Amino acid sequence: MKKWEVSKMRIGEPVRNLKNEVQILNFTVKSIENGIIIENLQDFDPIHTFECGQCFRWNIQEDGSYIGVALGKVVKVLWNNKDLTIINTNIDEFNRLWIHYFDLNRDYTRIKEILAKDPVLKAAIDFGYGIRLLKQDFNESLISFIISSNNHIPRIKKIIETLSRQYGNELVFDGTRYYSFPAIESFAKSDIEQIGICKAGYRCEYILKTAQQLVQNGIDLAAVSKMDTYSARKSLMQFSGVGPKVADCVLLFSGLKYDVFPTDVWVRKVMKELYFGYEPKPHEIISFSDERFGDLAGFAQQYLFYYARSHLK
DNA sequence: TTGCAGGGGTCAA
DNA sequence: TTGACCCCTGCA
Question: How far is CA A259 from the centre of its chain?
């Protein structure tokens, strides 16, 4: 099949339509000692979800479990290919926090079914079938992806860790100290010398300015999520250090917009090598993802990113 | 050991 | 459209 024949195919469906379909949640949640167990969970794998580039604060342990700091909590998750155990939480927190954070109300089987009509995505989904888009805190996503610009993942994680240690709250789990992501006010009332301790370089100024912009002007997230995607992107790009790529990441990873297609070097590689056959211009990639993936572009991006990082050089 | 290239981009000219 | 930007890491 020629590449451009494939490119005429439109596969994305509006997410809102999927939401209106009857949701069949197969899993059941039970309380255990110091935690919960989500039995018979479909379309999930912690490695795929935590290593697909959307988050920076989940770390794999020697036993294969993950410990993460999110939403002001520290939890440990264990996976046996069927049941997800979350330690250091309870049913109440599951209903208030984790069901949304892990996006457990969404029918990923259906999303993958639609996206897999595209042969490239089918390969990507076969590889990263357990990806779920985490619904992360907006402020944390904003600051984290400002830090991510022109930066390596290990260093991004180290910088966020240092900032959390300096400005966040201490959380103790299993005798180890962890630190929540700081309140945005902590950054806003700090100064460039203090923030500089995290060694984020020129991004420190972006962090301070953005935090001050947020505290002074605020942002109406409900309004942003209702805007058309172009306007939503523009509204985030008013913040210092936020360009189109960071804006798209924040929209997607804080659950505000799912039809964005954050385009970084890896996605560009996928586009070049698996779709276009040449180095496409940014506007070509945007048009392509709109046409091809529609309202499911954000999900497609995650499967492609995860696939690219393991399969392309 | 040292030097260099480049990294999940953004900004300003 | 282009080069500079902080700092770290990997590699020769």
Answer: 13
Task: For residue A264, say whether its CB is under 7 Å from any atom of strand B.
Answer: yes
Q: What do you get for the CA distance between the two ends of chain A, in Å?
A: 24
Outline where DSSP puts E strands in chain A: 28-32, 35-39, 58-60, 66-70, 73-79, 84-87, 170-173, 176-179
Residue A313: predicted pLDDT: 73
Residue A59, H or E segment: strand A58-60
Residues of A involved in catalysis:
245
Sign of CA dihedral A75, A221, A190, A140: positive
Q: Is residue A11 scored above 50 in pLDDT? A: yes
Write down the pLDDT at residue A233. 95
Handedness of CA A263, A264, A270, A273 (dihedral sign): positive
> Residues 6 or more apart from A159 whose CB is under 8 A from it?
A147, A151, A198, A199, A200
From A142, A159, A31, select the one nearest A92 (Cα to Cα): A31
The DSSP symbol for A200 reads -
Residues 40-79 of A with CB under 7 A from strand B: 53-54, 56
Structure tokens at A54: 């959307």
* CA separation for the pair A256, A99 (Å, rounded): 16
Q: Which nucleotide is nearest to A200 (CA to C1')?
A: C6
Quickly tell me which residue has 């996503």 as its tokens. A141
A152/C9 CA-to-C1' distance in Å: 9
* Strand B proximal to A307 Cβ, under 7 A: no
Query: pTM higher than 0.90, yes or no?
Result: yes
C-alpha–C-alpha distance, residues A169 and A34, integer Å: 21
Name residues whose C-beta falls within 8 Å of residue A101's C-beta, 6 or more positions apart in sequence: A70, A71, A134, A135, A136
- DSSP lists the bridge partners of residue A16 as none
In this predicted structure, which of A2-16, A32-46, A171-185 has the lowest mean pLDDT? A2-16
